[in-house]
Amino acid sequence: MTPVTTPSPSRRAEGPSGTAEGPGPEEEQALQARFDAAVAAEERIEPRDWMPDAYRATLVRQIAQHAHSEIIGMQPEANWITRAPSLRRKAILMAKVQDEAGHGLYLYGAAETLGVSRQELLDKLHEGRQKYSSIFNYPTLTWADVGAIGWLVDGAAITNQVPLCRCSYGPYARAMVRICKEESFHQRQGYELLLALTRGTDAQRAMAQDAVDRWWWPSLMMFGPPDDESAHSARSMEWKIKRHSNDELRQRFVDICVPQAEALGLSLPDPDLRWNEERGHWDFGAIDWEEFRQVLKGNGPCNEQRLARRRAAHENGAWVREAAAAHAAKHAAGGPRRSATAPAARSRA
Ligand SMILES: [Fe+2]
Ligand SMILES: [Fe+2]
Fold it and tell me: How many angstroms does the Cα of residue 96 sit away from the middle of ligand 2?
C-alpha cells in the first residue's frame, strides 16, 4: 500500500493556468494522463486531486450504496436486542449494531469528500433513488438468525471489503481498514453464537440449521450479479476501485464457508456442493437470480418495512440534528460565555 497523505500539487485540478471554468482540453488530457499514471502506480487518489467525472460518479454510487447498507442493515438484528437470551449476548449484539451505525457514518463522510452532502444521499435513499444491499430485505425470524447473519452476511461483507482496503480512492480505502477490523468481530460473534446453539439441545440445533438454510443463498447474492452481467465491474477494476470480480469473490466465500459449516456441524442447503479437485475449489449450485432481481426491485419480504422504519428514524432524529447544528453555530459565534461563571462554580465545588 502506498498511501499518499497529501495530494501531489501536480495532480490537482486548480493548476496555475486553471480558470474558474476548470481546465481546458489540453490540460484535461494531461490531468487524465497523470490520473492514469497514479492509479497504475498504486498511488491513492485524494479528494483534492483531479479525477474523471465518471470515476467520481462511480465512487459516489458505490460508497453511498455501501453506507445505506450499513444503516439499513442495523434493522434486522436490532429486532432481537430486546429479546437476546442473556446479558452477555445483548451487550455483544448492541455493540455490533452500533458498529454498523459507525460504518455508515465513516462511509457518508468518505462520500462527502467527493462533493455530495449526506442530506442529498439520505434523501435519495428515502425516496428509493439509491439502493442498499438486497440482503437486508429478509426477515430475522429466530434468535439463530443473529448468528447466521454474523457468520454469513458479515462474512460475505469481509470477503468483499478486504480488497477495498486497497481501493484507489484514499478516503474510501482508509474507512475500509477500520470497518474490516470491526466486521471481523461481527463474523466471529455470529460463528460463536451458532456454535453455542449447535452444541445445545436438538431444538437449538434445528433453529441454527433453519437460519443457515434461509441465509445461505441470499448471502451468495451479496456479491452481485455474475461477471458477464455486471454492468460496472470492468471499469471499476481498471480504476482499481474493485480488485476482484463478483464471481471470484463469491467462490472465495464458498471455499471459506464449507469447512466452517462442517466444523459447526451444520449443512449448507445446496445438493450440488462438491469439491472440484481440478479447479481446487468447491463447485456450487445455480443461484436464483430472479429472486435477487425481485428483491432489488423492491419486492423482497421486508423492503417496505425497512424503508418506512428508516424514514421514521430520520424524522424522529430531526431534533438531534437541529440541536447539534445550534450547538455548532453557538461555538462558531464565539462559544458559550463560561469565563465569568466557571471560576465561581469551581470555588463552590
Ligand atoms: Fe458493517
Ligand atoms: Fe458488520
Answer: 7
